[in-house]
Amino acid sequence: MIKKYLVLFLVFGFLVTGVLYAKAITPGDLGVPDPGVLPTSPFYFFKEWGRGFRRLFIFNPVARVELELGIVNEKAAEAAKVEEVFPENDDAVKKALENYKLAHERLMSRLQALKETSKNPNVDKLLRNLVEKITKHEQLFSELEEKFKEKAELKNLAGDAKDDLERLSEEADKKKVKQQEEEKESKNEGKTNEEGNLTSATVNVTENGFAPREVKIKRGGKVTWINKGTDAVWPASAPHPVHTGYPGFDALRGLANGESYSFAFDKVGSWKYHNHLNPSMTGVVNVVE
């Protein structure tokens, strides 16, 4: 009877160990099966140069965050690979962990500077990807922290990485909350404009467009455009660039962040307009009796 229970215990222990082992994060789990040149290589600086070169040609705020997230993920994979290949080389592991921390700081800076939210579908995709990466990185550094429990410096570096990930997660949560608030605000503004007295309307402008893109007011009503983005915007009547569709409807200059422009419409009709500084950004003002 005792032997029976002993066998069952050993089998259970083997299964549990196997499950735990299977959950260990590898570079492949991070989407980087082959991290390539590692920080231990004397040629690693070429890899860093390449990353810096890519940064020079990316101007979209969301794309910048995506790039830094990709680099952070690559450096997490590098850290996992260095620990796998050089488990006894403390200096190599330390360098990989420090590289991760520096990349993480740049990612945090880019994410904090990101103002685009509700009107850009890429932001929602970015936040989902970010949360997924954070979850895997937290598991990776928890494993490294446990492996290095007898090596104080490495253990602390792995623990610091986990703390940084927690702060990054909090920042991502803030962006998600802001995104939801802006979506609600935009819906409420559209509802108020359609169900209210139609004497005025407000359009918020970001790099992603006019929100709401289409408004309805009564003749004599006023529409106000507020720049809530980082780039200057110039609301003006179609067509571009002459602005003759509705004479007088022209901000005449770019509006900086926080500035606004208002115009009263006394002609009934559907009046198309655009951002003179980015003609692909368009909107419509419907004026009724």
TrEMBL record:
It comes from the Bacteria. Residues 171-194 have a biased composition (Basic and acidic residues). Residues 171-201 are annotated as: Disordered. SUPFAM superfamilies: Cupredoxins. Gene3D superfamilies: Cupredoxins - blue copper proteins. Transmembrane segments: none annotated. InterPro entries: Cupredoxin, ET_Amicyanin. This is DUF5667 domain-containing protein. It comes from Candidatus Giovannonibacteria bacterium GW2011_GWA1_44_25.
